[in-house]
TrEMBL record:
<dbReference type="Pfam" id="PF05239">
    <property type="entry name" value="PRC"/>
</dbReference>
<dbReference type="InterPro" id="IPR011033">
    <property type="entry name" value="PRC_barrel-like_sf"/>
</dbReference>
<dbReference type="InterPro" id="IPR027275">
    <property type="entry name" value="PRC-brl_dom"/>
</dbReference>
<protein>
    <submittedName>
        <fullName>Photosystem reaction center subunit H</fullName>
    </submittedName>
</protein>
<feature type="domain" description="PRC-barrel">
    <location>
        <begin position="4"/>
        <end position="82"/>
    </location>
</feature>
């Protein structure tokens, strides 16, 4: 396993596996109990329409660590695992439907 110092990730560019420039690493969010990284907090690219992406109250992108495919000169994000609002709305509506049917 290769170890990477978190401070070295600051300002590393995030690009999806389909070539969309998401932005740059701003911070990491950890689970306090386990120490596991939960999400990459990223400053969005100025040309990125963030309306479909999950963001925090400051407009920073929240990218699940499970979406990371590789880390090197840039961080490659698996676009199929990227949390977007339309996916979350579908999941929420499916859960509501299951709750009312069950």
């Amino acid at each position: 396993m290769v170890r990477i110092i978190a401070s070295k990730l600051r300002d590393v560019e995030l690009i999806t596996d389909t070539g969309i420039r998401l932005g740059w690493v701003y911070d990491l969010s950890f689970d306090e109990e386990t120490g596991n990284i939960l999400v990459i907090v990223a400053e969005p690219d100025e040309d990125l329409d963030t309306s479909e992406f999950v963001t925090d109250h400051e407009g920073l992108l929240l990218i699940p660590i499970s979406a990371v495919k590789s880390i090197g000169e840039v961080i490659i994000i698996d676009s199929s695992k990227l949390a977007v609002k339309s996916k979350l709305r579908r999941i929420g509506s499916v859960n509501k439907t299951e709750a009312t049917e069950g």
